[in-house]
Design goal:
Number of strands: 21
Strand order of the largest sheet: 8-9-10-1-11-19-12
Number of helices: 15
Helix content: 25-40%
Distance between the termini: 43 Å
Strand content: 15-25%
Largest sheet: 7 strands, mixed
């Protein structure tokens, strides 16, 4: 959902470039429908470590967080802040590997049990020591239906959570779930101080309520509507990873042009979500450097109705074949992306990479000739009703995509209508089936919280909230369920490969592209992770002076 759950986030990625939506087909044409070649920016794997600390960082967020309560961290801004304030049991490092964090170790003594040995010597920002009761309380909040945690899907197989020792908690499951342990490296595994949380009540995570956690930074001030300030926590348990900046000031700058201007002027020390319209200037300024890293993100077209004009899989395949992904990436994100063959991007390969890559490489190119696409439409018969795609102007990449899908559909004989909705109405499409009536496809960026393709494919299972089309394939469901319960990476990859092939064949989610992770850093700074871990890893702690 455009950010309703921990695993799916939509955000403003870009601003339109000179190649406008209306001129998309003229920006390279589509002699071969769905051509995928593009001049992509250079990817950076990592930056040199900082040599010394800095007094402060000024960082831009594209919006003000709605809450800093970990169970309601449902969008990029709050998660980008909380990654530096609150910690989880596990941690995902910039190389996308899982490491111990508040849990020093963990075991899986039987398929229905996870036991976490907690780290000694950890204190909350309030000075209180972290105990097993704090951890059990924090995780247990996600089971409380009255609280309505956005991470409830992670806990759907959890039977109980209890403190089973002074520094130990035990989680019992209703059925095997290998994903649960991975999710403990995400916001779903965040720990707060029980005493402070109970005292704050409903104010927890609000400007007037604060949050008491264990990370390298503590929440110092939240000036509603303006900024959030974090101070370095000198009592942080991991002295080797102590924060280099003394404080971080997050400024809320909604306007993409204003963010670009602030970076070009040197007012800001950095930001993610750099507008594509500013790439050229930021790549050539002497005020800093623009970097691009990989993400787990997948931009897809989600079919919402299998009874309408997209009911026949041949129509869905033909439309996907005709879409010019090169044109979309050029116009929407200035080429800072790679085309997708499947709904789960290569960035989700956090294990068994050789096996997962082989399965992905064996998939057909989603593009094809116009003649092939037209033949499929002729075989299926042109639907009497137009294909209606929904877009919102509040996300500047979306009109580009909608316009290209319309062009692609009409080029193979389909009727395509674009329905442009205000932001709030578009967001309602993710939670209200009635709002989706009359709409056949919508667009969204899905970002996996942890590197595992099942974190994406689970949403295509029968009955899932985000399987809007109501697609059902018992074999697909079985493969994903079995993959989620399988601890062995190679074995899980084999199951995913089979399920992935089914998803690709049915085109219920039409893969478009995986965006790069843009990061701007002011001259003289280094150390920031380039991979898209800024929502779970304490990234600000690593940034410091290059000299």
């Amino acid at each position: 959902m455009p950010r309703c759950t921990p695993r799916h986030r939509t955000t403003v990625l870009v601003a339109l470039t000179a190649c406008t939506a209306l001129a998309l087909s003229a920006c390279g044409g589509v002699e071969k429908a769905g051509g995928n070649g593009t001049n992509t920016p250079e990817l950076t794997e990592s930056l040199p470590a900082a040599k010394s600390g800095v007094d402060s960082l000024r960082w831009a967020l594209y919006a003000e967080p709605s809450s800093l309560d970990p169970i309601y961290s449902n969008d990029f801004p709050p998660m980008e802040v909380l990654a530096n304030v609150c910690e989880s049991l596990l941690r995902i490092d910039p190389d996308l590997t899982f490491k111990p964090s508040l849990a020093a170790s963990w075991t899986n003594p039987d398929p229905l049990t996870w036991v976490y040995k907690l780290r000694d010597g950890v204190t909350f920002h309030s000075g209180a020591p972290m105990t097993a009761e704090d951890v059990a309380y924090s995780l247990g909040r996600n089971l409380d239906k009255a609280l309505g945690s956005y991470h409830d899907a992670v806990y759907k197989n959890v039977a109980s959570i209890r403190a089973s020792g002074d520094q130990e908690i035990t989680v019992r499951l209703k059925k095997p779930d290998a994903q649960f342990n991975q999710a403990m490296a995400t916001p779903a595994g965040r720990v707060v101080g029980k005493a402070a949380a109970v005292k704050a009540g409903k104010k927890l995570g609000r400007p007037d309520g604060g949050v008491d956690c264990t990370g390298p930074f503590a929440l110092s001030e939240w000036a509603a509507g303006k900024s959030i300030t974090l101070d370095r926590f000198d009592g942080y348990w991991d002295k080797k990873r102590a924060a280099k900046p003394a404080k971080v000031d997050f400024e809320f700058i909604r306007d993409p042009a204003a963010r670009t201007t602030a970076m070009l002027s040197g007012e800001l020390d950095g930001s993610w979500f750099v507008p594509a319209s500013g790439y050229a200037k930021l790549l050539n300024t002497d005020k800093g450097s623009l970097y691009f890293g990989r993400t787990t993100g997948s931009y897809v077209g989600m079919v919402t109705d299998l009874k309408g004009p997209l009911a026949d899989v041949r129509i869905r395949r033909a439309l996907s074949m005709a879409v010019d992904r090169k044109g979309i990436m050029t116009a929407a994100v200035s080429g800072a992306a790679e085309p997708l063959k499947a709904p789960a991007a290569p960035g989700t390969w956090g294990y068994a990479q050789k096996e997962l890559k082989a399965a992905y490489d064996a998939l057909p190119d989603p593009g094809g000739s116009l003649e092939q696409a037209k033949k499929l439409v002729q075989e299926a018969g042109v639907p009497a009703e137009p294909v209606t795609v929904a877009v919102t102007g509040s996300q500047s990449e979306m009109p580009v995509i909608g316009t290209e899908v319309k062009r692609a559909g009409e080029s193979i004989g389909l009727k395509v209508d674009i329905r442009t909705l205000p932001a709030d109405n578009y967001n309602a499409l993710y939670s209200d089936a009635k709002a989706r009536e009359g709409i056949d496809m919508l667009f969204s960026l899905w970002q996996a919280d942890y590197p595992d393709p099942t974190a994406i494919y689970q949403y295509l299972q029968s009955g899932d909230t985000f399987n809007f089309a109501g697609w059902k394939d018992p074999e697909f469901d079985r493969l994903i369920d079995e993959a989620k319960a399988t601890a062995d990476g190679a074995e899980r990859a084999g199951l995913i490969a089979q399920a992935q092939q089914k998803a690709v064949d049915q085109v219920v989610w039409m893969p478009l592209y995986t965006p790069f992770n843009p990061l701007f850093l002011k001259k003289g700074l280094t150390g920031a992770p380039i991979s898209s871990v800024q929502l779970s890893y304490p990234w600000a702690a690593d940034i410091g002076a290059a000299q």
